[in-house]
Amino acid sequence: MAINRDKDQLKPDSREYAILSGLQWVLVLVDDDSRFEYIASDYLLMLEELETASRNSAMGGYVEALSRQALSRLAGRLATVFPITEPARHQFIAILPYVYKYGVEVDKFVGYYRLGLGQLPLVEEKSNFDNAVKSKDYSTLTDIIINVYYQDRLHKRFPKNTLGIDLALSQGQLNRYLAKLATLDFAYDYTIADKYSLQNYYVTHLIFVMSDFGRHAPIKNGLSQRLEEYLLTHFDAVRNIVNDRDLLAEFIHCLKILGHDKLPKLRGAERYLLGLQDKQGSWTSPYYQSGDAYDQFHPTWTVLTALNYESPW
After folding, report:
1. Which residue(s) pair with 54 in the sheet?
2. Which residue, 282, 274, 279, is CA-closest to 248?
3. Which of 23, 28, 189, 272 has its CA 20 to 30 A from that of 301?
4. CB within 8 Å of 256: residues ≥ 6 apart
């Protein structure tokens, strides 16, 4: 494979070598059908992230080939990966931009949606969102924002009249929700570990959503400024106290998206993460190696995409 050839030309102690080694580890992981089915939509998102603002000029070619391969595998197992449920509907909407971008089995994907997922009644999230805001339920807020982002992304990249399918998705909902979050307090610090973790992942995912996962800088407004201040203020706690390499990687990735590439402590944290890669190319700790496919995948996904990303502005 081209990845092997290109990696052989790199220094084993280089960042680029580590990135390609990490990608190869992920490919071994998803080679197993059951693990692939479990994380398929996240795997495709990871591939798009790797293509975004990569220093490796060959990354786009890897991503296209691997995305086409993944979509072809998915086309033959749609009922298994996307049962007729509301959560699966969100995951299906998440992969549609890749189906249309690469033109892989479009009729099959669209037909499956029409006959199954498209028949589900629409779920109104507004009351759940409002309740989550009132209770500062950061986990629920993160899930809702991500799902609405997938809808918004589909509208922006592929207007409805080009899809050949009416997804019946609301337009403008993402901006309305983000506006309501502009003044939501951050209630926890590292002394309340579980809730602090959920709060931190809420912050990173807002940055990912507001930047289309690093495709552009977030619009400068009150919310983005508060999030940026939060990331800078809490970086040391996440780096030195919180034992979560996934979260540290997401903090690094988000600060790069915000233009802080040259921040000395960020560069130091990147060196720290590079030192955690195992001989197989994974950043997944032994504790999570025995977990489900997502637990195995997520640490390497976050570190890999954070190290690969270079802010273009």
Report:
1. 309
2. 274
3. 189
4. 214, 266, 306, 309, 310, 311
What are the structure tokens assigned to 194, written together? 């579980």
pLDDT computed for residue 288 by the predictor? 84
Query: Which stretches in the chain have pLDDT values below 70?
Result: 1, 160-169
Distance CA(104)–CA(102), nearest Å, equals 6
Residue 10 tokens read as 């790199």
Beta-ladder partners of 309: 54
Tell me the residue length of the chain.
313
Residue 12: exposed, middle, or buried by beta-carbon count in 10 A (0-12, 13-18, 19+)? exposed
Distance of CA 28 to the CA centre of its chain: 20
The per-residue pLDDT for range 101-149, each reduced to its tens digit, is 999 999 999 999 988 998 888 777 889 999 999 999 999 999 999 999 9
What is the number of structural domains in the chain? 1
| Residue 313 falls inside a structural domain | no
How far is Cα 151 from Cα 97, in angstroms, rounded to an integer? 10
C-alpha closest to that of 218 among 94, 313, 93: 313
pLDDT value for 158:
86
Residue 4 inside a domain? The answer is: no
User: What's this model's pTM, rounded to 2 decimal places?
Assistant: 0.96
Question: For residue 226, what are the domain limits?
Answer: 12-308
Flag whether 78 is in a domain. yes
| Helix (H/G/I), strand (E/B), else coil: 60 | helix
Q: What is the DSSP string of 262-282?
A: T-HHHHHHHHHHHTT--TTS-
Work out the burial of residue 21: count CB atoms within 10 Å of its CB; fewer than 13 is exposed, 13-18 middle, 19 or more buried: buried
Give the domain CATH number at 241.
Answer: 1.50.10
Angle separating helix axes 222-240 and 245-257, nearest 10 degrees? 140
Q: Does residue 7 lie within any of the structural domains?
A: no
Structure token digits, residue 312: 């273009």
